[in-house]
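Hey, can you fold this?
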Amino acid sequence: MVKFGPSGNGDLFYAQKYKSSLDAPLWLKNRGLTAYEYAFSRGFNISDFNAKLLGEKCKENKIELSLHAPYYINLANPDKKMIDKSFNYILTCIKYLNTMGATRIVFHPGSCGNMPRKEAFELLKLNMKELVKKINEQKFDFKFYLCPETMGKSQQLGTYQEIAEICTYADYLIPTLDFGHINSLLQGKLKKEKDFEEIFTYLIDKIGFNKVENIHIHFSKIEYGGKGEIKHLTFEDKVFGPEFEPLARVIKKLKLNPVIICESRGSQAEDANEMKQIYDNIKEI
């Protein structure tokens, strides 16, 4: 079953006088949504008590909860101390998964810095293998997915091909396909069903249908320039893409069951609802 929801809380949530993310699960349920992504974007700023309570409220309201790891993770950093910090951020996130009853962690894999892209990616691959080793040593006794995200700027690592390669390192690694990011890197070339289907076909060949079937998706329209992503937009924008309907048709055609998180600028819940309506109105293909 495809699940739709927002990343964080949008303008409408706060305009209706809600203040706490603890109110989000019931609010989302009442809007017909079934997913929610809680971001540790600037660090771990929630108490264990509230983390557990948020997880309980998500379960009570049948909301699929995912977590976004801190933005400053960079597994291509040449500084060993900084790499260790990135490892610890991800390990801490996994522990929060258990506390909150969530199953997925999204994270940004890294950036090139001053290195050539090929060299930076080789370093990223080495550190991803080391991360997998550290995770396996922990012997976590609960199921989870670690979901490296496709990125939208030319200096960031995370094309869908790069993400597919690092997702071969462990069964619990599945991609986060951010189609706004991919479209930004491709300079607006995601337009037709075949453009989206080519990406899924590549991933199925590389990592197998089982992973792709349960893939994590971020979706929003994004303004881009020559170097990729500039800023997130809303579905009201008519200049930049991508559009959701061709992607929805491919998801239905391939019989996928992703979690789809909307990252529109301030209207993420409303646009998540629009995506759900578009998907639901497509007849079986």
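Oh, and this one too while you're at it.
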Amino acid sequence: MDELVSIGVPPPVGGVSRLPRPDWLRIRLSTPEPYHRVRRLMEGLNLNTVCEEARCPNIYECWGEHGTATFMILGDTCTRRCGFCAVHTGRPAPGVDADEPARVAEAATAMGLRHVVVTSVDRDDLPDGGAGHFADTIRAIRDRLPGAAVEVLTPDFRGVEEALDIVLAERPEVFSHNMETIPRLYRQARPGSSYERSLALLSEAAARRDSGSYEGRVKTGLMVGLGETTAELEATIRDIRAAGTEILTIGQYLQPTRDHLPVDRYVHPDEFARLRRFALGLGFRHCESGPLVRSSYHAHEHVARS
């Protein structure tokens, strides 16, 4: 039976009142057989998904209605501690799981995916930041699903120059790296990361596209509701477009647990629509903007529409 529920608002901490839950942040919780089929597949192949690890609010729609998922490679332990992210942080097991790319490809084949999205935790313990494992995963998907498009959502690889070349050499249809937020909030939201480094990674990917050495799209995502101003957000969107990025997603930040950064405000759907118009006016090929939008939400449509 379907149930309409509010999402993303943890219990109040220490008696501090929480923000009221807006009506537009409500989803229909439904777990039909396709949802359970995807869950069984992931468990059977010992695969991680960002849908589960990051507590994505769209998991019921993507797994239950569309039979899609976003694979998270390189384990389930991130070497960074971002203030917004629910993924477990700590010291990962050494090395990588060499069989993981094949299992991702097997799952994508079983699900009949035509657009495969692969992301990862940050692995600052690896010399290449995990770029080689991304490349292995792309190749495995190509071998099993030669007609499928592949989208990779990568970390910043700590600025290692060769890492981007390793990934782009496998010709993913979409290269994505999320900026997440405005420069002023990086210290709280993304400690260990750098606004300039993330922007430079997008710019380098766009430069390879413009030179003809890479034929895919360049994409990024932003969260709102962390305390940014309209002027700061618009300046960041301008920076992203100036870096050559073609596809932009904008979604509401939802506090995953009481230990994470609080929500500063819930952005109204009308403002998301305005931000989309603003981005398209700057020349983005496509902008997905809405309260429940995440970087891989309706990802296959981003390429078709751009």
